[in-house]
Amino acid sequence: MPDAPGPTGAYLVALTPESAAAFQAHEINIPHLPFRVGRESRRFKWTELGLVGERRTEAPPNNDLYLVEESEPMNVSREHFLIDRRAGGFFLLDRGSTCGTIVEGEVLGGGARPDEVLLKDHDVIIAGTSFSRYIFKFRIES
Fold it and tell me: pLDDT value at position 27?
């Protein structure tokens, strides 16, 4: 069941199992803006308890949502994209990612221009190339 509408009125809906696993739900209310998304860069190791990540101790987190990629080639950068709101609406800004971000077929970042796009209700967002497993739908609740 989705979260109750929060202060932003914006949601991300998981369109793949990997996306749903990242926020442990089918859909999340974006709790605050800007909302930063990037790859989990902590090291992982297998233990008798399963896959365990090292703890962050020296620096605060630089993302609000961490996406885990366990194999090459990686699509998601450590600081991939962010969603923010301005007078004109909600925007997605590619944060200088290597592979870029695809919004409704338009490639942002990764050497392409523009690096920013106005988001519309039900826009599909792919973190990385078209081969990425992290695909979301942006939803606005009015």
Answer: 96
